[in-house]
Automatic annotation (TrEMBL):
GO terms for molecular function: UDP-glucosyltransferase activity. It comes from Oryza barthii. Pfam families: Glyco_transf_N, UDPGT. Keywords: Glycosyltransferase, Transferase. InterPro entries: Glyco_transf_N, UDP_glucos_trans, UDP_glycos_trans_CS. This is Glycosyltransferase. Residues 19-255 form the Glycosyltransferase N-terminal domain. Residues 449-474 are annotated as: Disordered. Residues 460-471 have a biased composition (Basic and acidic residues).
Length: 508
C-alpha cells in the first residue's frame, strides 16, 4: 500500500524523519517495528537502527515494507567488538539468544558501546533527522541524542498503568524494600498493593540499580514518550502518567493492528516455525471462541517438570487448545517423547506448536476464545485487540501488574494463581502453579457461564474500541497525526495544559 501522507507535499515541508532504536528483545523490537511501519504508512520516514543478527530477523518486515512502498529502512550497525572481551558468545545480539544467566548483565553493558556507531550514523545523515525514538532500556541513547542536538522520545513497552506504578514507586524510593514488605503504590487512581515479587521495576535486582537509575533519567530528560496502548483502555492511567512526567505521552496503539494481512503478520519477529496456514486450517474446523491458545512469550522458559504440568492441565481442562513450546524447552528426548504421547492422547482436540508461532494470526482467528499468557504487555494487548479474554500467569517484571490491569481493572482475565516471580530459564524450586490450577483457570475462562460470558463481552468491547482507536478519527490514529505534524512543523505538543487529579479512590 502506498504511503498516505496527511500533508500536501507540494506545499509542505518534507516529511519528518524518525530514527528508531529498538532494544534487542522480541517484546521490545516487535512493537517498535510495527511503530516504524505505522509512521511510514502515514508518510513519515522511519529508520530502524539494529545490529546484523537482528537486521537478518527483520528481513521479512523490510521486504513487506518494500512491497508496500513504505519509506522504511533498516540501518545496520556492527554489534560492539567489546562483546568478545565481555565473554559474550559470537552472534548473541538479542536477549532471547542468551543461554547463560551470567551473560545478561554484560549484554546490557556491551549495548552501551553502540553509542559511537549511532552517533556516527546520526551525524553522517545529509539532513538531521526530526526525532530519535529509543527504547527506555537503551538509556545510553540519551547522551548521544543530546550531543547531536536532536529531540528524543522514549518508547516504553508496558502499559501506562505499569509505568505509572513504576514512576510513583521510584519517586518514593519504594523499590528498595526488604523481602517481606508489602506496600501500596502511591499516587495511583486505584489502590495497588504489591510485594517484593510483584512490585514495579525492570532492574530491581541488586547490582542493576545503575540501569534502573539511567532508565528513569532517560525518561525524565526525554522530550516525551510513546506507549503502545490506547485511550479507551486506560485513559486515567495515561493521563496520570503524562501528568506525573509533565511531558507528552503519545499513545498510538495497539500497534499490532497495523498488521492487517497474513503477509504482514507473518513478518513479525522470527519466521514462524509452523506455516501460518497449518494452524489456521486446523482452527478453521473448530467452533467460534472454543479454542484456548497458550504461549508464554519470547523469553520465559519452563523446566520439563513445569512443562508437563501445563500439558496435563490443558488435557484435564477438556478444552481444545493450541499450545506453543519453545525449541529450548523441547531439547531433550524425554520432553519430545512426553509431548508426542500427549499429542496422541488429545488428537483432534489439541495441537502443540514447537518453536516460534504466528501469534497474531492465531489470536485473530474467530475460533480462538481464550489465551493463557505470561502477561507480557504485547501479548495482553494483542489479545485484547482481538477481543480474546485471558488466563493470566505472570512470570516476572511488569507481568504481575499487567495481570492486575487485565483482571482487576479491565475485567478480562482469570488469574492462574502465580504470586511469586520465577527465573527466566525456569525455576523448579519456585513451582507454585500446578495442573489443577491450569485446568481450573482454563475451564473458568472457557466454560460459557454467565461470568465467562461477561468477561468475553468486555474483551470483545475493548477489541472493538481498539480497532476504532486505530481507524481514521480514532484516538491513536489522531495522536499519530499530531505526532507527525509536531515534528513536521517543529511545534511540540504542549504538556503544560495537562491537569489531572490522581488520588486513590477505588480498591482493586
Ligand atoms: N510472539 C510470537 N510468537 C511466539 C512468541 C511470541 O509472535 O511464538 C510475539 C508476540 O506476538 C509478542 C511478542 O512476541 O508480540 C512477545 O512480547 P510480550 O511482551 O508478550 O512478551 P516477552 O516476549 O517480551 O516476554
Amino acid at each position: 500500500m502506498a504511503p498516505t501522507a496527511e500533508l500536501d507535499t507540494a506545499t509542505s515541508p518534507p516529511p519528518p524523519h524518525f530514527v528508531i532504536v529498538p532494544f534487542p528483545a522480541q517484546g521490545h523490537t516487535i512493537p517498535m517495528v510495527d511503530l516504524a511501519r505505522l509512521l511510514a504508512e502515514r508518510g513519515a520516514r522511519a529508520s530502524l537502527v539494529v545490529t546484523p543478527v537482528n537486521a537478518a530477523r527483520l528481513r521479512g518486515a523490510a521486504d513487506h515494507a518494500a512491497r508496500a512502498e513504505l519509506p522504511l529502512e533498516i540501518v545496520e550497525v556492527p554489534f560492539p567488538p567489546s562483546a568478545a572481551d565481555a565473554g559474550l558468545p559470537p552472534g548473541v545480539e538479542n536477549i532471547d539468544l542468551i543461554t547463560d544467566y551470567a551473560d545478561f548483565r554484560p549484554f546490557f553493558d556491551v549495548m552501551r558501546d553502540l553509542a559511537a556507531p549511532l552517533e556516527a550514523y546520526l551525524r553522517a545523515l545529509p539532513a538531521p533527522p526530526s526525532c530519535v525514538i529509543s527504547d527506555l532500556s537503551n538509556s545510553w541513547t540519551a547522551g548521544v541524542v543530546s550531543r547531536v542536538g536532536l529531540p528524543r522520545l522514549f518508547f516504553h513497552g508496558p502499559s501506562c498503568f505499569y509505568s505509572l506504578c513504576d514512576l510513583n514507586a521510584a519517586a518514593h524510593g519504594l523499590q528498595q524494600q526488604a523481602d517481606d514488605d508489602r506496600y501500596v503504590v502511591p499516587g495511583m487512581p486505584v489502590r495497588v498493593e504489591v510485594t517484593k515479587d510483584t512490585q514495579p521495576g525492570f532492574f530491581n535486582t541488586p547490582g542493576w540499580e545503575d540501569l534502573r537509575d539511567a532508565a528513569m533519567e532517560a525518561m525524565r530528560t526525554a522530550d516525551g514518550g510513546v506507549v503502545n496502548t490506547f485511550l479507551d483502555l486506560e485513559d486515567e492511567f495515561i493521563a496520570c502518567f503524562e501528568a506525573a512526567l509533565a511531558k507528552p505521552v503519545w499513545t498510538l496503539g495497539p500497534f499490532c493492528l497495523y498488521n492487517r494481512d497474513a503477509d504482514a503478520m507473518a513478518s513479525r519477529g522470527n519466521t514462524p516455525d509452523v506455516a501460518q496456514s497449518v494452524v489456521t486450517t486446523w482452527l478453521d474446523a473448530m467452533d467460534t471462541d472454543s479454542v484456548i491458545y497458550v504461549n508464554f512469550g519470547s523469553l520465559a522458559r519452563k523446566v520439563p517438570k513445569y512443562l508437563f504440568e501445563v500439558g496435563h492441565g490443558l488435557e484435564d481442562s477438556g478444552k481444545p487448545f493450541v499450545w506453543v513450546v519453545k525449541e529450548s524447552e523441547v531439547a531433550t528426548p524425554e520432553v519430545q517423547e512426553w509431548l508426542s504421547a500427549l499429542e496422541a492422547r488429545v488428537a483432534g482436540r489439541g495441537v502443540v506448536v514447537r518453536g516460534w508461532a504466528p501469534q497474531l494470526a492465531i489470536l485473530s482467528h474467530r475460533a480462538v476464545g481464550g489465551f493463557v499468557t505470561h502477561c507480557g504487555w504485547n501479548s495482553i494487548l494483542e489479545s485484547i485487540a482481538h477481543g480474546v479474554p485471558v488466563v493470566t500467569w505472570p512470570h516476572f517484571t511488569d507481568q504481575f501488574l499487567n495481570e492486575r490491569l487485565a483482571v482487576n481493572v479491565l475485567g478480562v482475565g482469570v488469574p492462574v494463581g502465580a504470586t511469586a516471580s520465577v527465573l527466566l530459564f525456569g525455576d523448579e524450586a519456585a513451582m507454585q502453579v500446578g495442573r489443577a490450577d491450569v485446568a481450573r483457570a482454563v475451564s473458568k475462562l472457557m466454560d460459557g457461564g454467565e461470568e465467562a460470558g461477561e468477561r468475553r463481552r468486555k474483551a470483545k468491547e475493548y477489541g472493538e474500541k481498539a480497532h476504532r482507536a486505530m481507524e481514521k478519527g480514532g484516538s491513536s490514529y489522531e495522536s499519530l497525526t499530531q505526532l507527525i505534524r509536531s515534528f513536521t512543523l517543529q511545534e511540540p505538543k504542549n504538556s503544560s495544559s495537562i491537569t489531572v487529579e490522581c488520588s486513590a479512590n477505588r480498591h482493586i
